[in-house]
Design brief:
Elements: H1 2-9, H2 11-17, H3 20-28, E1 34-39, E2 42-47, H4 63-80, H5 83-98, H6 103-133, H7 143-148, H8 153-170, H9 174-180, H10 204-233, H11 237-243, H12 245-268
Antiparallel strand pairs: 1-2
Helix pairs in contact: 1-2, 4-6, 4-8, 6-11, 6-12, 8-10, 10-11, 10-12
Length: 269
């Protein structure tokens, strides 16, 4: 599909807008202090202040849904492994099965509901911000949501770090075993086929500390970015501040729900 897309639309255009993993990593890379700059001699690497790159993303109709999906998928992944979800999932699955819907479809429905809830709350908060500030032009369609959507990118990265930190610490250790037996045939090429993952490498307190820090810092940065954009749009700082009350409520809600889902997952483990 990627080869066909590059042939049909052009390599750069397809990778910038169509290939999912390129768009995903490119979106998160806007937070990076490193950037590629176009010059008369071609392209070269340069440095910029971290985070500010997100303010330069171009508006696109699907960007709100895409960034919302980045947050929703990680949130759903965390919740689906908790006791809270398991208890309700069993009851919900039984009702869906009675209606002829299998477990896989039920999971897809849960993911879509999570996505709709997160995007819906963000759309509501951004639209309410525009109303409070009197930005009539932004209240049309999804312009308010598109205007502030860059503020969700640090949150998407924070959720990714918080939920997959343990995977990053523990799973690479298994490469030592796989190097000796990459095909699962019982080989022991380098004498490391019996290597075990050290789950005591980091403590539970350190894991929780990294997760809490990522969630809190990500939401604080997101709120700061939203407030900065409000200052650009407002005639004075008082209007900008008033417009950000809905965003503050949204960020607090996302922070609490993110920390709660993480605590549920740790309680399950």
């Amino acid at each position: 599909m990627t080869v066909v897309g590059m042939h049909r639309f052009g390599i750069e255009r397809w990778l910038d807008s169509g290939e999912m993993f390129s768009v995903y990593t490119g979106t998160l890379a806007t937070l990076s202090p490193v950037e590629v700059r176009a010059t008369a001699d071609g392209r070269r690497l340069g440095f910029r202040p971290p985070i500010v790159g997100v303010t330069r993303i171009t508006w696109a109709p699907a960007r709100v849904a895409f960034i919302g999906a980045l947050i929703a998928t990680v949130t759903f992944d965390g919740l689906s492994g908790s006791d809270f979800w398991a208890t309700r999932d069993v009851a919900a699955a039984e009702r869906l099965i009675e209606r002829g819907i299998d477990d896989f479809t039920a999971g897809i429905i849960g993911l879509l509901v999570t996505l709709a809830l997160i995007v819906g709350l963000y759309e509501l908060a951004s639209h309410t911000s525009a109303r409070l500030a009197g930005w009539k032009r932004l209240r049309e369609g999804a312009r308010a949501a598109a205007t502030f959507v860059h503020a969700l990118i640090p949150i998407a990265l924070a959720y990714f770090v918080a939920h997959y930190f343990t995977l990053f610490v523990f799973q690479p250790q298994d490469l030592v075993r796989l190097a000796s037996d990459p095909f699962g045939t019982g080989a022991d090429w380098f004498g490391t086929a019996d290597h075990q993952i050290d789950f005591q490498l980091v403590s539970a307190n350190l894991i929780w500390g990294v997760q809490v820090t990522a969630i809190v810092v990500g939401h604080v940065i997101g709120l700061a970015l939203a407030h900065d954009r409000a200052l650009e749009l407002s005639s004075n700082s008082r209007v900008a501040l008033r417009s950000q009350y809905p965003m503050l409520v949204l960020m607090v809600l996302f922070s609490v729900s993110g920390l709660w889902s993480l605590s549920e997952g740790m309680a399950t483990v």
